């Protein structure tokens, strides 16, 4: 392929065009191909680094992952062309019917997410903080319930729609081109630290807003500013993000071919179910919350078993995969909100200071998370109204802790390439190695801040 050769390979959603030869490399066995423009609708997704993969025929290549950090857009003209290309490419494969289905699905999913999260009581700042110092286990019970349902949902897609499974799996591959410890590990540690400080996580703050948790709006503001700061400084720290130990493969099954995905999935499912059962035998969930009236109708109960809420949340993977061709996550929505500010700026300003936001300004795969988070706020509000628990949480988080906690958890999520939902619920159940590394680092960050803060300040919990 000559440098001047540019050819359209396919009309598939996640196929890239405009590639050029620049030299030899071992990665693709023959040619080093560098992306001239990112044209995939998947270019923001969970990750910020694109990966070019050979399809097997030596002629067709595919982009997975996100923003091309190695070649920032430098001029207003390049920025404008880049955005026009994105708009054109994002519009081609999707019919109006598909877009409406995806929007409706994201709204309904978000409503259910907020409703069941409010019922779990895992959203309460006290319960999150006490989880990291092992005084309560509501959050882990809900987390493992969601993990179990997610594993089962993705396994069904793997069995009955392998093409969709491969497409969804590929969208995570770009994260593997980050430094495993310098970016994924450190970012996850910061995410966990922010959770322990602010008593929230990127998705959970929506439930807190809907149920009127004190200072939740400050946590949300801190999260938005954290996403804004990461987007602003991403071009500066790009070399750091992609340095250090970088995975040469993506999944557990890539490293251990004898382990089939369905075997890994069953192992995750067995672990999650086992933890839910054992943890509730040792510490019954009703002993972790104040007594409540159990004679009311199910939707007006103050609390549901956190494992049940988690399972319902994890089952949302099914409509996400079918109607949106995506998996659960929340942190991209905050960056998409931040990109709104760039619409009022000139092309020169955008290309100079905010080029990393260009991939988040347009496209359904960016904006569905915004409607999802908005609907989650409404769902939590309806749940709290039904049970009479609006604002009925401890006034525990100070404004400073709320702001800096929100900032850290979103800055960390973007650095890690995913949040608690993206890595913990989706990534692990897809057998992604970087997600398996991210989750322990997240809990390590939460425990580090939680134990130190609790030791220094008796009012921490």
Strand and helix layout:
Elements: E1 19-21, E2 33-35, E3 50-54, E4 61-65, H1 76-91, H2 96-120, H3 125-132, H4 138-160, H5 162-170, H6 180-198, H7 204-210, H8 216-241, H9 252-255, H10 261-282, H11 306-314, H12 317-324, H13 331-339, H14 347-353, H15 364-387, H16 399-416, H17 420-427, H18 433-456
Antiparallel strand pairs: 1-2, 3-4
Strand content: under 5%
Structural class: mainly alpha
Order of helices and strands: EEEEHHHHHHHHHHHHHHHHHH
User: Looking across the biggest beta sheet, what order are the strands in?
Assistant: 1-2
User: Are there runs of 5+ residues with pLDDT below 50, and where?
Assistant: 1-56, 58-75, 86-93
Quick one: overall form?
globular
Tally of extended strands? 4
Distance between the termini: 62 Å
Major β-sheet profile:
2 strands, antiparallel
Share in helix: 55-70%
Q: Rounded to an integer, what's the Rg over CA atoms?
A: 22 Å
Q: Helix tally?
A: 18
Mean pLDDT: 80
Tell me about this structure.
This protein is mainly alpha-helical and 461 residues long. The protein is built from 18 helices and 4 strands. Helix 2 packs across helix 7, helix 2 runs antiparallel to helix 12 and helix 3 packs across helix 6. The longest helix has 26 residues. The chain is globular, with a radius of gyration of 22 Å. The relative contact order is 0.20. The N terminus is likely disordered.
């Amino acid at each position: 392929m000559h440098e001047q050769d540019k050819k359209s390979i396919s009309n598939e959603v996640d196929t890239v065009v405009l590639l050029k030869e620049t030299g030899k490399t071992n990665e693709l066995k023959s040619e080093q191909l560098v992306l001239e423009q990112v044209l995939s609708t998947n270019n923001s997704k969970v990750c910020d680094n694109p990966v070019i993969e050979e399809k097997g025929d030596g002629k067709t290549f595919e982009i997975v992952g996100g923003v091309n950090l190695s070649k920032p857009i430098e001029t207003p003209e390049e920025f404008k062309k880049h955005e026009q290309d994105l708009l054109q490419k994002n519009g081609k494969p999707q019919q109006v019917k598909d877009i409406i289905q995806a929007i409706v699905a994201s709204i309904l999913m978000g409503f259910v997410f907020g409703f069941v999260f409010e019922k779990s009581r895992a959203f309460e700042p006290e319960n999150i903080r006490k989880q990291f110092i092992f005084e309560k286990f509501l959050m882990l019970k809900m987390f493992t319930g969601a993990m179990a349902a997610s594993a089962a949902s993705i396994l069904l897609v793997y069995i009955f729609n392998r093409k969709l499974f491969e497409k969804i799996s590929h969208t995570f591959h770009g994260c593997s081109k980050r430094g495993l410890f310098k970016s994924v590990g450190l970012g996850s540690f910061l995410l966990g630290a922010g959770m322990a400080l602010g008593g929230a996580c990127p998705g959970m703050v929506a439930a807190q807003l809907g149920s009127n948790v004190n200072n939740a709006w400050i946590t949300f503001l801190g999260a938005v500013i954290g996403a804004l700061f990461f987007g602003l400084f991403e071009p500066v720290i790009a070399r750091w993000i992609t340095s250090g130990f970088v995975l040469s493969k993506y999944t557990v099954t890539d490293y251990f071919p004898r382990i089939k995905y369905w075997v890994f999935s069953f192992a995750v499912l067995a672990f999650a179910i086992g933890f839910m059962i054992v943890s509730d035998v040792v510490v019954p969930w009703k002993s972790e919350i104040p007594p409540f009236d159990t004679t009311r109708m199910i939707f007006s109960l103050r609390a549901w078993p956190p494992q049940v809420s988690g399972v319902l949340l994890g089952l949302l993977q099914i409509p996400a995969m079918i109607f949106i061709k995506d998996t659960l996550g929340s942190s991209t929505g905050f960056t998409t909100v931040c990109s709104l500010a760039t619409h009022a700026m000139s092309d020169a300003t955008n290309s100079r200071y905010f080029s990393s936001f260009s991939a988040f300004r347009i496209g359904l795969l960016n904006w569905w998370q915004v409607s999802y988070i908005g609907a989650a706020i409404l769902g939590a509000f309806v749940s709290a109204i039904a049970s009479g628990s609006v604002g009925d949480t401890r006034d525990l988080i100070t404004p400073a802790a709320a702001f800096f906690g929100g900032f850290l958890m979103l800055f960390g999520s973007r650095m890690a390439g995913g949040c608690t939902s993206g890595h913990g619920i989706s990534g692990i159940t897809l057998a992604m190695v970087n997600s398996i590394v991210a989750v322990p680092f997240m809990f390590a960050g939460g425990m580090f801040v939680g134990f130190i803060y609790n030791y220094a300040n008796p009012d921490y919990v």
